Amino acid sequence: MSPTLSLENKVALVTGGSRGIGRAIALEFAARGAAVVVNYNKSPESAEEVVKQIQSAGGKAAAHQADVSDFKQAEALVKFTVETFGDLSILVNNAGITRDQLIMMMPESDWDAVINTNLKSTFNCSKAAVKHMMRKRVGRIINMASVAGQMGNPGQTNYSASKGGQIAFTKALAREVATRNITVNAIAPGFVDTEILDAMTPETLAAALKMVPLGRKGKPEEIAYAVSFLASDEAAYITGQVLGVDGGMAMM
Ligand code: NAP
């Protein structure tokens, strides 16, 4: 029998752990026994609230501000994790933004912001984390991609490219680090009930949900369960994969 997906004695770093999906992952990891660093960029109160919730349930957590699109800040975030909890066993590259616009109207700054926040951050944090994981000869990296990176989405050339890039990055890095017992996987959520969907009009969202066989938005917790599985010892033989958690939307 499997030891029930425990994350006891693991140290996890969740980028963008202050709100939405990242918050749900941080709480789920802590409930399974991991010590968690809750990274945030602009929402210190939300990050502290997540930390308090974990600590009051008897878990270990710390918040740390870093803009993960910045190479040096990402490096410092990984250093903080190792110094605070003595290890880094699980990295979740979850931080992400949207700046939706048809290409004809999309300013260069919105392209750069989305690519840097969603994709460059994945390189920044993974590079720093892998250095530590290689030495320990064990590790888990989980990248939060999207169905947009698999199917494309009008008005989201920047976002779709960043998420497709994360998927390709996942496969390349998985091949690079497999001999060191480090697995690298991606999750591709569909529409999940968080503030990121506030950018969509109710009409666009209703139309989009028609493409979801299960006929509803996902809950952040439903993403967190899948991430927890990929982070667990039981998922040791899974690497370079993209797990759709999308109500059946993409079916690759
Ligand atoms: P959200 O509720 O808007 O939360 C975004 C999180 O990312 C926040 O914690 C935010 O922190 C953090 N963040 C943004 N820029 C950052 C930066 N430069 N450095 C560090 N942290 C940063 O979004 P969400 O829906 O939970 O999305 C989480 C991930 O899932 C994203 O990668 C998103 O693309 C992906 N995803 C979401 C959906 C969906 O439908 N919700 C679907 C597919 C994929 P601060 O508030 O502190 O800035």
Written description of the protein model:
With 252 residues, the chain is of the alpha/beta class. The chain has a single domain, classed as Rossmann fold. 45% of the residues lie in helices and 15% in strands. It has eight helices and seven strands. It has helices at residues 20-31, 44-56, 71-85, 108-136, 148-151, 157-177, 202-209, 220-231, and strands at residues 11-14, 35-40, 61-65, 90-93, 139-144, 182-189, 242-245. Strands 3-2-1-4-5-6-7 form a seven-stranded parallel β-sheet, sandwiched between helices. 44% of the residues are buried. The structure holds NADP nicotinamide-adenine-dinucleotide phosphate.
Query: What is CATH's topology name?
Result: Rossmann fold
CATH class equals Alpha Beta
- Our count of helices gives 8
Can you count the beta strands?
7
Kindly give the count of domains. 1
- Global Rg: 17 Å
CATH architecture label name: 3-Layer(aba) Sandwich
Which bin fits the share of residues in helices?
40-55%
Task: Describe the protein's topology.
Blueprint: E1 11-14, H1 20-31, E2 35-40, H2 44-56, E3 61-65, H3 71-85, E4 90-93, H4 108-136, E5 139-144, H5 148-151, H6 157-177, E6 182-189, H7 202-209, H8 220-231, E7 242-245
Parallel strand pairs: 1-2, 1-4, 2-3, 4-5, 5-6, 6-7
The structure holds NADP nicotinamide-adenine-dinucleotide phosphate.
